[in-house]
């Protein structure tokens, strides 16, 4: 029987160490504030490096541990700073992580509980590599909520942040399906969704992107804005509070900006 090489721990010993870590993380007696002093950025970076292990059992253990840490210590908050520190050119596995982990995290119903941290992560990807903007935008389009209005408001807010960091080339790759979705949001019966979609025109960068590609985008928007103007679908309470007047002023401002962009 072959003995393990000296200095290289056997899987039996490693597994015990990982099991102890898991039990510490999931224990209800674990104090989060104390644990944060030890489960910090350097610790997590070293833990992520262990995914390079040749032993599939170890990789599976690391995956389980990271999942437990995420549930306990809000790993997304730490992940944002990790993304910010990615070296360039960005590794392929980081792009895969964006497509297979970060974007699908927009699907759960509980998105509101961690959306601000997730949104920060996606914008950090764009800040690092602007070419990833269309990947994120198309990914958001595929996850776009249909019946959850509050979730759609969150999507529109994140979309604005991503577009503010999007270049012309990346924008042109996704602009048609993107603005078809924005047009649908403008015509939503929920006033907060429609209002948040209209607020996209408060961004000078987004208006400039529209202006550069007005021949394709404006026909999509004109139809949506026309329906939005002629159909009163705001709820009565907000009508009594003068919400329609504010929205009318917002629409008028957008028409003016679109007319200026079309010149």
TrEMBL record:
Organism, scientific name: Salvia divinorum
Signal peptide: 1-27
Superkingdom of this protein's organism: Eukaryota
Protein name: Serine/threonine protein phosphatase 2A 57 kDa regulatory subunit B' beta isoform-like
Pfam families: B56 (PF01603)
InterPro entries: ARM-like, ARM-type_fold, PP2A_B56
Record keywords, A-Z: Signal
Keyword Ribosomal protein: no
């Amino acid at each position: 029987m072959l003995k393990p090489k000296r200095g290289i721990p056997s899987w039996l010993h490693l597994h015990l160490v990982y099991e102890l870590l898991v039990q510490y993380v999931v224990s209800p007696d674990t104090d989060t504030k104390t644990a944060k002093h030890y489960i910090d950025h350097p610790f997590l970076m070293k833990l992520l490096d262990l995914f390079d292990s040749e032993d599939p059992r170890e990789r599976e253990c690391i995956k389980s541990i990271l999942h437990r840490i995420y549930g306990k210590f809000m790993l997304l908050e730490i992940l944002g700073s990790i993304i910010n520190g990615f070296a360039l050119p960005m590794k392929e596995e980081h792009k895969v992580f964006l497509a297979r982990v970060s974007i699908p995290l927009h699907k759960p119903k509980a998105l509101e509980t961690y959306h601000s941290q997730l949104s920060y992560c996606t914008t950090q990807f764009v800040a690092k590599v602007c070419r990833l903007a269309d990947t994120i935008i198309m990914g958001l389009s595929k996850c776009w909520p249909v019946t959850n209005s509050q979730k759609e408001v969150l999507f529109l807010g994140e979309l604005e942040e991503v577009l503010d960091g999007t270049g012309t080339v990346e924008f042109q790759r996704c602009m048609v399906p993107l603005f078809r979705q924005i047009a649908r949001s403008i015509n939503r019966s929920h006033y907060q969704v429609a209002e948040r979609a209209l607020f996209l025109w408060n961004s000078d960068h987004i208006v400039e992107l529209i202006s550069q590609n007005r021949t394709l985008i404006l026909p999509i928007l004109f139809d949506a804005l026309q329906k939005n103007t002629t159909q009163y679908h705001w709820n009565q309470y907000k009508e009594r509070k003068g919400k329609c007047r504010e929205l009318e002023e917002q629409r008028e401002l957008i028409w003016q900006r679109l007319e200026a962009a079309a010149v």
